[in-house]
Design goal:
- 2 copies of one chain form a homodimer.
- In chain A, helix 7 packs across helix 12 and helix 13 runs parallel beside helix 14.
- With 359 residues, chain A is an alpha/beta fold.
- The N terminus of chain A is likely disordered.
- The radius of gyration of chain A is 24 Å and the shape is globular.
- The first copy, chain A, has 14 helices and 11 strands.
- Chains A, B: It holds the Pfam family DctP.
Chain lengths: 359, 359
């Protein structure tokens, strides 16, 4: 009888424990994430899935993140606002998409003639980049983090060859961010178009050219069927996506889940860089064998030189108008100067000096 | 009365919950880690500290890792064995330190004329590298993971200039791994020496030259005071340290703590690469201004060519003697061939094509 009573008590306690702990250590925190991409979007969407899976596993299911793709929330370029007002808790997007709308978001994705991925990660973590991003996003109740790097992006798909600066006149091209502004100064018409509408826009002549990413993503978009000239990159040497988090919402998470979320986002960003690298290498190999009609081109030196001149002029204008912009631009230029010397000695120098021996 | 009884039950339950959870979700798991480095060793040791801190924070203190440095366990090159037999649960070391003792550990750190850091991470994750490492380490009750990359290492500090292949004859040099074997074929005498004894060995003429890492770590070692010729690298383009974990011990952790440990190790490895990059850039800048007597050199092309020939011959010998070695070497060479084409188009091509415009 005593034993039976004991048994009953244990069982009753077990039930109570489960229900009580739901309010303490085992409480499940549910966050909503809006991404700028369509569902199952390769590489970019994989970074989000990777982050969500790590957060779930590391928290033993206490941190659940629901992902809404662009087809659900209908606002691929509204991610910033939706997270700012708390409609979503987290966003996955690109900082430069909000250029023109939110001051100084432009500088945290990639800059023409700027840093490569490793150089830029070093700037974010050791060169003051993250602190500057905090300054820009903090004003909007947001905290932003690197969200995955594509590596050097290709210069884009063109219907016609670009042989001179004149060929850029009246060229309608999908090219977001600062690079778009630079080409506008040389007479082109840059536009931004949501990823899902790119192919149709090129097909229907709404645009004459576009840049998207590179071999990791471009081939499945089919651009090569309508625009055979594939130019090497100058404008996005290290395109870093971003995770943005609603600051107030982040503060409501227990410290361990905040740590889990931050580490998961950070690791997912590095992972995407490596995935992009591997995928680009594989797809470049596929491309050169399966689509021999694609013509890989470099812009002529005088075109690149004119672009660089326009680039520097616009940077000076921006710096003169906005002290925070001036601070960010100086930080990036100073860091590039410091770090590129090392890149030249190390990875660039190594590949250069062993090139003849390894080909 | 009913209300009062209800209150009492709640209180009693609360006490039971606290005491029960101490035996379940809140159990603290304590692991011991042995590192090959001395205490507070920069960069390498920082990777370990970074990993331990992430694991602690993400687990809310449920995963505690005690770190023993080489001065404590007295076996900088015994880390493999100590983790294998379970004397330690985790190790932080370099796979190639166990070359000659444990078959095929040689290939998972870096290879002369091999992949750069991004290329090698891509190989680990998408080119079969991790699976091959699992095959090698699984035989020893161990699982190994990337543990932090130094980037391209410098070719080393030399007392005298190397102007010809003859200058390598009888050269006593601290250079571990495969590179040591290659130089031995050309008449040099490679040795491995624990990090803490390097300076004294060079000072006392026990060795004529040494390679350590690069500007991120070399300057504080003081080598430049006794060996002024600093050669650019060929032999370690992407030195990746490793975390090794005792397989049985890993399996005793709950799934969430296993996930936390793996993510923390993986993120710490990427983080170390970025820290090395930033630190190398900063120290290179310091070096060129504060130590103008250091002479930065490249090996003459005929020396590099002879080294490459010796390199390829030894690789062929190794492949012919051991089927697993042959499989690993082929995997690395095939992947390098695939991925370097993309590096040439992307990061190398970008820096090359914009070089004149950014200097």
């Amino acid at each position: 009888m005593l034993r039976s009573l004991f048994k009953t008590t244990i069982l009753a306690t077990a039930v109570i424990v489960t229900s009580t702990s739901a309010f303490a250590a085992d409480k499940v925190y549910r966050l909503k994430l809006a991404e700028s991409w369509g569902p199952n979007f390769p590489v970019f969407g994989d970074a989000v899935k990777n982050m969500v899976k790590m957060a779930d596993e590391m928290s033993d299911g206490r941190l659940k993140i629901r992902v809404d793709s662009a087809n659900k929330h209908k606002a691929p370029f509204g991610v910033f606002d939706m997270v700012k007002i708390g409609q979503y808790d987290i966003g996955h997007s690109a900082s430069y998409y909000y250029n023109g709308k939110v001051p100084n978001t432009l500088y945290f994705t990639t800059m023409p003639f700027g840093m490569t991925a490793s150089e830029q990660y070093a700037w974010f973590q050791y060169g003051g980049g993250q602190e500057l991003m905090d300054e820009v996003y903090g004003k909007h109740n947001l905290v932003a983090f690197p969200g995955g790097n594509t590596g050097v992006q290709m210069g884009g798909w063109f219907r016609k060859e670009i042989n001179s600066v004149e060929d850029l006149q009246n060229l309608k091209m999908r090219i977001p961010g600062f690079a778009g502004e630079v080409l506008a100064k040389l007479g082109a018409t840059p536009v931004n178009i949501p990823p899902g509408e790119l192919y149709t826009s090129l097909e229907r002549n709404t645009i004459d050219a576009l840049e998207w990413v590179g071999p990791s993503l471009d081939l499945r978009m089919g651009f090569h069927k309508i625009a055979p000239y594939y130019y090497m990159g100058w404008h996005e040497p290290a395109t870093e996506l971003m995770f943005i988090v609603n600051k107030k919402k982040l503060a409501t998470l227990p410290a361990d889940l905040q740590a889990i979320l931050k580490v998961a986002m950070h690791k997912a960003s590095y992972d995407m860089y490596i995935q992009s690298y591997a995928s680009s290498a594989e797809n470049w190999d596929t491309m050169t064998s399966e689509f021999p009609d694609i013509q890989v081109k470099t812009f002529p030196p005088e075109v690149l030189s004119a672009i660089k001149k326009a680039n520097d002029e616009i940077l000076s204008e921006k710096a003169s108008k906005d002290p925070l912009a001036a601070k960010i631009i100086k930080s990036q230029q100073d860091y590039l100067k410091l770090v590129r010397v090392w890149t030249d000695i190390s990875e660039y120098g190594y590949i250069k000096s062993t090139k003849a021996l390894t080909e």
